[in-house]
Amino acid sequence: MTADFATADLIDLAPDTPSCETDFKSYGRRRRFCGRIRTIRCHQDNGLIKALMNTPGNGQVLVVDGGGSRYSALMGDMIADAARQNGWAGAVIFGVIRDSVAIDQMDFGIKALGTNPKKSGKSGVGESDVSVSFGNLTFTPGHYLYSDEDGILVSPEPIEAA
After folding, report:
1. In its UniProt record, which GO terms are filed under biological process (predicted)?
2. Which residues, other chains included, contact 89 with Cβ-Cβ below 8 Å and sequence gap of 6+?
3. Annotation-wise, does 45 bind a ligand?
């Protein structure tokens, strides 16, 4: 899937497509990204995130339900760079990141609530590839996510531009 789309145009084509109501901040040079969804649910611990981002991404998008916690960062520059190198399209994090200046130099896209320099736990507690919900939207593994400057859409099937 290419990042040659605009969510406003896609939702005009498929008006019933759900959009995320959370107002995320964008990080990284890749402001538009899309792909099949993989998920992680965790709380103040990025062990599962680090492990997954060090596997081939094949253009997928990681969606992390961090419960909206701003206590500690779930992704920093090292994990983001591993994801970029492994072919992940981007990440949506219902939580915070760190190393935002370094991440902003990368050809990688992240949507997150904000930043906090505090490191998270590393024990790997959490769940992978389960449906997660935030922003009045459910993110289901295998569905398609489209993210750009205007927001985030999720669809069970790819949305084809006219």
Report:
1. methylation; regulation of RNA metabolic process
2. 1, 3, 30, 33, 34, 35, 57, 59, 60, 61, 109
3. no
Phi-psi domain of 135 (left: phi exceeds 0; alpha: psi -120 through 50; beta: other): left
Topology annotation, domain 21-155: Glucose Oxidase; domain 1 (3.50.30)
**Contact 57/79 with Cβ under 8 angstroms?**
no
Write out pLDDT tens, residues 51-62: 999 999 999 999
Is 99 annotated as belonging to a binding site? Answer: yes
Check whether 29 is labelled as a binding-site residue: no
Q: Is 110 annotated as a binding residue?
A: no
Tell me: the pLDDT tens digits for 84-136? 999 999 999 999 999 999 999 999 999 999 999 999 999 999 999 999 999 99
Residue-level pLDDT at 160: 80
* Residue 79 annotated in ligand binding: yes
What are the residue ranges spanned by the domains of the chain? Answer: 21-155
Q: Is the pTM of this model over 0.90?
A: yes
